[in-house]
Task: inverse folding
């Protein structure tokens, strides 16, 4: 530290204030103490003014802050006001003093640092006693006891009468300060290859409490302190870091960590104009997974996303796309979801069961974080993924609390929490990529698919796209799949051998040739930049031709739904989905206009997913009723028929309708045996039919 005396340092700060923040100090004086209680100073300004002073601030923050606050009190003000309790809060440290949370070490102790991250948890704001005034009930003396962190300190004996109380806290004479605890977690975009984010707790006081909400991206400046692990009885030699927060600023919510160089830009623009860019994109997602071209294209569109629109009336239409992969186990869903982490500029990967108490949405809890006393608001995956993508595996297993909050999260893209005095709205402007297994583990070909998805129709309808993945044997496909998986594994074996063994019969060329086959077309790092670049710079608008294509498709779909007694097949939501998808398709080309080709591309995708989910498995016809109501018309007819059949036959026999007769008659009316058996089983499960004796049936 500079060998300056205290008063010289105070003078130095006074000079600095005069040169750099005279207006701010004057404003503070006018607003003090009700509206404003802090003077915020920029470290970079301080450095420009006096590099030594700025460096000292980093190393001895506590002392320097005292001098700075002293200078503030001595400052010559035009109005007569004392800035007695005003704070000096420093912000904007250089990158060299902004370690990643995971890199904080013992040497950072008691130093000023800045951390960046996303607010994961925040307690509610409560008054904390800083100095307690104990009034002796015998002699009336006030005993002032300063309260530091830890337990509440009480006087041993009265300073007046030297007796041991009893005492009572006099609130008017005590000093309180608003206090709040925050937990900051490393931002999703800073993490590569699925690292677990690390967190740091920050204690904030007075005027900077209640300023941030979970989900906010912040830069926090403060002093790192230690807190011993363990409890009163068993203290551990290991300590935890926490930060005494000095300033907490909300960051611009862009992809701040992405350095897109001029060279990258050139490469991105070059790629965007190439023929077959869409195929290249598809070949850049999860190359180890064979097939799924449509799914992969859709995932890519999701990453680029549509344009978020602000309407003149103040409302907002989301540009983010939500997509669900539902299918048989072992079909590569989890693998594809996991790959998103490699290429999404900002992503959160989690399981529906959730790894934290906040689950997928958010929660207000009373746990250790608030010392079991204060309520804590915690952000779940969809909040942490704000402005990015949330990949949620096993979505069907999500907690019931999440199910209800999910509707708002997906459509309005915010989550409201109102519990125990906490009223907050968290932002969740993210795309959801979900994977789920069918309700009974595996798809049943006799059941309409919509009935086998364990999510309520209102939630299902919020997905822009739903892909169903069935695992049925198919010789050609199986052969290709086997070839692909074997190649992938072989390429992996070669690479491992190359690394682990000194002598090898295969040449480097051969190895390269093998690995080339399973490498992504566009390198993951470049693709991340490509996506971030397109999202930032490209806001396409529809051409008339594109609008026409989408309009025609939609009207045609709706027409199909007006047959007979089928209710409305698809809602206007699908229309918005088409628009979003088409915009995303234009963004891949970095184009500012959505062409007819984009519209056709996405109509193709939507048509195929609707068919997957909406085709009557028996007639093969598109039956939109399935998507919304969960049963097909032919299936409803069949259920009615078979029940009728049983009750007819039952009347002819004393012991109930014999199974073989039922199946025989079913066959006569054109229902094959396996379907009839399946339907009977279901009627039994529902309790509409029972078996009074083996192979005899009765209706209830
Ligand atoms: P799911 O989540 O659908 O149950 P997983 O993603 O866990 O399935 O996949 C199981 C395994 O099968 C993985 O190792 C995956 O690589 C492999 N696999 C499944 N389908 C494919 C495919 N189409 N191409 C390559 N590998 C596949
Ligand atoms: Mg899985």
Result:
């Amino acid at each position: 530290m500079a060998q300056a005396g205290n008063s010289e340092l105070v003078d130095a700060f006074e000079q600095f204030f005069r040169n750099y923040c005279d207006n701010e100090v004057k404003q503070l004086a006018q607003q003090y103490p009700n509206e404003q209680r802090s003077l915020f100073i920029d470290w970079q300004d301080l450095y420009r003014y006096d590099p030594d002073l700025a460096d000292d601030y980093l190393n001895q923050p506590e002392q320097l802050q005292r001098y700075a606050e002293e200078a503030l009190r001595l400052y010559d003000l035009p109005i007569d006001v004392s800035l007695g309790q005003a704070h000096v809060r420093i912000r904007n440290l250089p990158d060299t003093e902004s370690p990643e949370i995971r890199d904080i070490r013992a040497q950072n102790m008691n130093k000023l640092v800045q951390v960046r991250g996303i607010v994961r948890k925040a307690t509610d704001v409560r008054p904390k006693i800083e100095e307690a005034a104990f009034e002796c009930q015998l002699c009336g003396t006030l005993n002032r006891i300063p309260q530091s962190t830890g337990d509440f300190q009480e006087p041993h004996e009265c300073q007046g009468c030297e007796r041991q109380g009893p005492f009572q806290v006099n609130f008017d004479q005590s000093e309180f300060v608003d206090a709040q605890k925050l937990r900051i977690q490393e931002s999703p975009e800073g993490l590569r290859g699925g690292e677990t984010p690390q967190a740091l707790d920050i204690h904030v006081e007075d005027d900077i409490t209640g300023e941030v909400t979970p989900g906010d991206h912040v830069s926090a400046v403060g002093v790192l302190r230690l807190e011993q692990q363990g409890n009163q009885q068993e203290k551990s030699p290991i300590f935890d870091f926490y930060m005494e927060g000095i300033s907490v600023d909300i960051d611009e919510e862009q992809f701040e960590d992405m350095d897109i160089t001029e060279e990258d830009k050139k490469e991105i623009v070059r790629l965007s104009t190439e023929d077959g860019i869409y195929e290249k994109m598809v070949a850049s997602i999860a190359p180890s997974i064979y097939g799924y071209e449509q799914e992969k294209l859709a995932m890519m569109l999701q990453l680029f996303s549509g344009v978020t629109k602000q309407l003149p009336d103040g409302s907002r239409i989301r540009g983010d796309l939500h997509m669900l992969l539902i299918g048989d186990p072992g079909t590569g869903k989890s693998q594809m979801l996991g790959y998103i982490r490699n290429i999404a500029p900002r992503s959160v990967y989690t399981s529906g069961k959730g790894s934290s108490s906040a689950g997928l949405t958010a929660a207000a809890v009373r746990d250790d974080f608030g010392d079991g006393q204060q309520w804590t608001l915690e952000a779940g995956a969809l909040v942490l993924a704000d402005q990015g993508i949330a990949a949620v595996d096993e979505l069907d297993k999500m907690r019931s609390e999440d199910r209800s909050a999910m509707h708002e999260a997906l459509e309005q893209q915010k989550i409201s929490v109102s519990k125990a005095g906490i009223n907050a709205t968290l932002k969740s402007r993210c795309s959801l990529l979900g994977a789920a297994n069918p309700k009974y583990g595996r798809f049943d070909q006799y059941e309409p698919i919509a009935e086998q998805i364990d999510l309520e129709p209102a939630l299902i309808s919020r997905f822009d796209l739903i892909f169903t993945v069935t695992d049925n044997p198919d010789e050609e496909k199986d052969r290709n799949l086997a070839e692909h998986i074997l190649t992938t594994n072989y390429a992996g074996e070669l690479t491992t051998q190359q690394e682990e063994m000194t002598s090898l019969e295969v040449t480097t060329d051969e190895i390269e040739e093998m690995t080339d086959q399973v490498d992504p077309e566009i390198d993951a790092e470049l693709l991340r930049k490509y996506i971030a670049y397109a999202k930032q710079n490209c806001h396409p608008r529809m051409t008339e031709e594109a609008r026409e294509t989408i309009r025609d498709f939609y009207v045609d779909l709706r027409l199909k739904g007006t047959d007979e007694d089928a209710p409305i097949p698809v809602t206007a939501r699908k229309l918005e989905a088409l628009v979003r998808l088409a915009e995303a398709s234009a963004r891949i080309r970095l184009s500012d206009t959505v062409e007819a080709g984009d519209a056709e591309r996405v109509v193709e995708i939507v048509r195929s997913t609707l068919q997957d989910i909406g085709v009557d498995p028996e007639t093969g016809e598109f039956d939109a009723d399935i998507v919304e109501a969960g049963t097909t018309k032919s299936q409803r007819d069949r259920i009615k028929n078979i029940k009728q059949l049983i009750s007819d036959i039952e009347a002819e026999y004393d012991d109930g309708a014999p199974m073989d007769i039922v199946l025989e008659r079913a066959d006569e009316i054109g229902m094959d045996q396996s379907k009839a058996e399946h339907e009977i089983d279901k009627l039994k499960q529902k309790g509409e039919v029972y078996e009074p004796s083996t192979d005899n049936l009765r209706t209830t």
